[in-house]
Amino acid sequence: MGRSGRVTLSDVAKASGVSRATVSFVLNDDPRQTISAATRERVLEAAQDLGYVPHGIARALREGSSRVVVLNVDWGMEGNFSRSYVRGLDEELAEHDHILLVRHGHANPEATQKVLDTIVPRAVLRLGEVYLRGEEPTDEDWERGFAANAALQIRHLAERGHTRIAMALPDHDFPLTGARLGFAQETARQLGIPPLERFVVPRPREAGAAAVEAFLAAHGDVTALAAFDDDIALRSITALRDLGRRVPDDVAVIGFDETEYGSLTTPALTTVHIDAEILGRIAARAVLGIDTEGLAPVPGRVVVRESV
Amino acid sequence: MGRSGRVTLSDVAKASGVSRATVSFVLNDDPRQTISAATRERVLEAAQDLGYVPHGIARALREGSSRVVVLNVDWGMEGNFSRSYVRGLDEELAEHDHILLVRHGHANPEATQKVLDTIVPRAVLRLGEVYLRGEEPTDEDWERGFAANAALQIRHLAERGHTRIAMALPDHDFPLTGARLGFAQETARQLGIPPLERFVVPRPREAGAAAVEAFLAAHGDVTALAAFDDDIALRSITALRDLGRRVPDDVAVIGFDETEYGSLTTPALTTVHIDAEILGRIAARAVLGIDTEGLAPVPGRVVVRESV
DNA sequence: GCGTCCTACTAGATCGATTAAGTACCCCAT
DNA sequence: ATGGGGTACTTAATCGATCTAGTAGGACGC
Q1: Which one-letter DSSP state was computed for residue B79?
Q2: Residue B18 CB in 7 A reach of strand C
Q3: What's the mean pLDDT when you consider all of chain A?
Q4: Given an 8 Å threshold on Cβ–Cβ distance, is A57 in contact with B61?
Q5: Quick check: A118 and B83 CB within 8 A?
Q6: CB < 7 Å to strand C — which of 248-277 in chain A?
Q7: Burial of residue B56, with CB atoms counted within 10 A of its CB: 0-12 exposed, 13-18 middle, 19 or more buried
Q8: Mean pLDDT over all residues of chain B?
Q9: Which one of A5, A180, A194, A281 has the lowest number of neighbouring Cβ atoms within 10 Å?
Q10: Which CB contacts under 8 angstroms, 24+ apart, belong to A26-31?
Q11: Which domains does chain A have, with CATH numbers?
């Protein structure tokens, strides 16, 4: 046992009277080796007794990468989607002997490179897109699940009789922005309603109100707002109320990616709840090269409250 | 250059016509070695030309730990505090050639052990406490900054004439809960106001209202609520309004750790803004064994809006 | 001319695992 | 009795950097 207090392969080898190689074969169940039952038993027992745990760094050096997956999460993407996605990713990776670590902040290439150089993870993902290493995972499923959710938001408004719908957006883009907008627009087209107008709801509160006011002045026929996320939805509701517009009677508002705060406002926010756990699991498997069959994304659902 | 496409020390050594050891000495500026200016120059140039970057895993194996610090963030701790803390930690670590990676979820020992075994980070911290490895950092400063913030909340209410103050808490504890409560109580004592009562504001909305109602029925003299965080504060305000109580006239509410949502409600939430960036930097230095002089925690400030 | 010291390096062990290549032994067929 | 083949292992190379222990060569003193 090294002075680091760690039990190494050599310790197990010594304790069970075989070579390091044999121990490695046994512990990794190497199918190309034939190990007698007796030896296998002795090795396993010794490993158990000594409390041997493989040294991830040594293994990573040999194998070419560590059993780590890094996920980049941009600031401002904390929501139910993000949370459930992270949970699914984390759990699925754990089930395959890997760990998930998250990097927060705007994902820039140098930072990613630094991570790559420092721990050589199996993959670096970005919330909303697959980012580096490994062959491109088939994120058709991903897109499909995601597209469905985007459609849900527009569809709900249409079902409630709204035909003039605008999208309220944050003042900077997220990885998903483009796709979201595309899917929403496509949904409008399919439903036979006019193309969705777009506008940005900035902070702080006053600026938001001004933006909403300006937008409605130019587009008086709009009766419903589909917000990029609950944050924007809440800002929109506040702006509308500050402007003396009634929600949902004058203008309806629907959020996206349920936040708890949405249930606390007056009127309470109608929004889309997304459980991305399966998406996280799918991403995990894609990264590890395991097939993803049997994992169907959970469809989103509309949480009907008062704002639509 | 190995087939992995990586430029290694050996490549640099070959290119500059010296041994690997010499390259290592030059690149690490080993003070125990004497290297001629000419050689140093050649090595540096070769490293530059080839784009050599040390392999973090190999280095970690040799050095005993990787240049990574892991931070555990419990679910539900996403706020301004968390964000600024993470930013400070991340930046300070980056300045000392380390990287920060975050683990989300409830911090359990097995998960931490897994991280330790997989990448052997320099340290595993937990948002709100120092967790493992290295000598215990002097978090007196930390506590001091944190204590000051807790005090600020109570003090603000007292300054507005409130003497019967209760603390509204979430339904489960965070790493900081105990300390927070202690500091708040101590502040009340110092200000000469009665001990703070405590109660939990659960979800969903109706349960929250019921809890607030029950509490006020038992403690009719309470005129102000100091919430554990903005989330609880917002739930409290909603509960109070649902019960027909006016905020702040009947009951004042102050939040903690400013959320953006607080500015969007009616009445807008008065809260405590905490910039924990310096705390993050201090934690980083403590972990790396660098002295933390010159880093003074930024005092928190009350964001006065309408709820107090 | 020999020992000593200094400069400027190099050789090789080391961290802890994985794995290709090899070896010893026994069994069985020819 | 000899070769082929399977079983059950071992030896040693390898991943890439760090660092101890050594060495070659020159200067200097006496």
Answers
A1: S
A2: yes
A3: 90
A4: yes
A5: no
A6: none
A7: buried
A8: 90
A9: A5
A10: A27/A52, A27/A54
A11: 9-54 (1.10.260.40), 141-273 (3.40.50.2300)
Does B134 have pLDDT greater than 50? Answer: no
CB-based contact B260 A66, cutoff 8 Å: no
pLDDT digits (tens, 9 = 90+) for A87-99: 999 999 999 999 9
Strand C bases contacted by the protein (CB, 7 Å): 7-21
Write the pLDDT tens digit of every residue in B91-129.
999 999 999 999 998 888 999 999 999 999 999 998 877
Q: Two tokens at B25?
A: 């000495």
CB A186 within 8 A of CB A153: no
Instruction: Confirm if A282 and A142 have CB atoms less than 8 A apart.
Output: yes
Alpha helix ranges (H) inside chain B: 9-16, 20-27, 37-50, 56-63, 80-95, 109-119, 140-159, 177-191, 205-218, 230-242, 277-288
In angstroms, the separation between the Cα of residue B184 and the nearest Cα of chain A is 26
B144 band by pLDDT with thresholds 50, 70 and 90: low
Q: Which residues of A touch B119 (CB under 8 A)?
A: 56-57, 60, 66, 68, 99, 101, 119
Q: pLDDT-derived band of residue A116, with 50, 70 and 90 as boundaries? A: very high
CA/C1' separation B28–D23 (Å): 23
Q: Is B17's CB less than 7 Å from nucleic acid strand C?
A: yes
Distance A18 CA to C27 C1' (A): 25
> What phi and psi, each to the nearest 5 degrees, are found at residue B88?
-60, -45
State the burial class of residue B88 (Cβ atoms within 10 Å of its Cβ: 0-12, 13-18, 19+).
buried
Which residues in chain B have their CB less than 8 angstroms from residue A61's CB?
57-58, 61
| pLDDT single digits (tens) B201-212 | 999 999 999 999
Q: Which tokens belong to B124? A: 């595993």
Asked if A1 CB < 7 A from strand C, the reply is no
B111, B105 Cβ separation under 8 angstroms: yes
Tell me which chain B residues have a C-beta less than 8 angstroms from the C-beta of A125: none
Q: Is the Cβ atom of B27 within 7 Å of strand D at any atom?
A: yes
Provide the CA A238 to C1' D8 distance, Å, integer. 75
Q: For residue B2, give the chain A residue with the closest CA.
A: A64
pLDDT band at A4 (very low <50, low <70, confident <90, very high): low
C-beta pairs of B280-283 under 8 Å, 24+ apart in sequence: B280/B84, B280/B85, B280/B86, B280/B87, B280/B88, B280/B89, B280/B90, B280/B91, B280/B92, B281/B88, B281/B89, B281/B91, B281/B92, B282/B137, B282/B141, B282/B142, B283/B85, B283/B88, B283/B89, B283/B125, B283/B130, B283/B137, B283/B139, B283/B142
Identify whether the C-beta of residue B165 lies closer than 8 Å to the C-beta of residue B181. Answer: no
- For residue A283, what are the CA distances in angstroms to A206, B158, B241, B270? 40, 51, 43, 41
Question: CA B211 → CA A122, B68, B177, distances in Å?
Answer: 48, 44, 19
Set of chain B residues whose Cβ sits within 8 Å of the Cβ of A103: 99-102
The pLDDT value given to residue B4: 64
Is B240 within 8 Å of B253 (Cβ atoms)? yes
Strand C: which of residues 159-218 in chain B lie with Cβ below 7 A?
Answer: none
Question: A118 beta carbon < 7 A from strand D?
Answer: no
Using CA atoms, how far apart are residues A230 and A79, in angstroms rounded to an integer? 9
